[in-house]
Specification:
The structure is a single chain. The protein is globular, with a radius of gyration of 17 Å. It is built from four helices and seven strands. The protein is α+β, with helices and mostly antiparallel strands. It has helices spanning 10-33, 44-55, 72-87, 128-139, and strands at 41-43, 60-65, 69-71, 93-100, 103-110, 145-148, 152-156. The strands form two sheets. A five-stranded mixed beta sheet has the order 2-4-5-7-6. A two-stranded antiparallel sheet has the order 1-3. It has one domain (5-156): 2-Layer Sandwich (Heat Shock Protein 90), CATH 3.30.565.
Amino acid sequence: MSHDASSFGPEFALIQDSVKKANAQISLYRIAFGQAASESSVSGIEIGRALNDCYGEGRIRVRQNLPTQIDRRSAKAALLGLMCLERALPRGGDIRLTFQEDRWTLHATGDIRSLSFEAITAADPADVQNSLFPIAVKAAGRTLSVTKGDRETTINF
């Protein structure tokens, strides 16, 4: 006999949603902060599903257009870049993550605070992705470019 979340009440549904989001975050963190062998790839479908589960109903809305298979090194860089943009949007906003013609574009709109990719010295440990992002882009064999506006930022690599 199986039950759906609604048969147990709203508290159980909240717990299920929290577990689903936590599992999605762990999946994304494993790619972003894990080892990335040069020959390995990851499923764009699985990354897209994890992004939907993680950002589905939060203050940050993430839209993505991903291929079915992605080089693990470039996926690592893309997720670190996404985390940088998320941290730069404390009041929420939109992030579009696309991979076209062998090029990543991360476009954020909203009230964007400063975004720096300098090495961490005495910075907040919550910003570690900002230091790791340019290293990951270089390890993926790509060149980073950032365009900043008042309410939008675009990262290409």
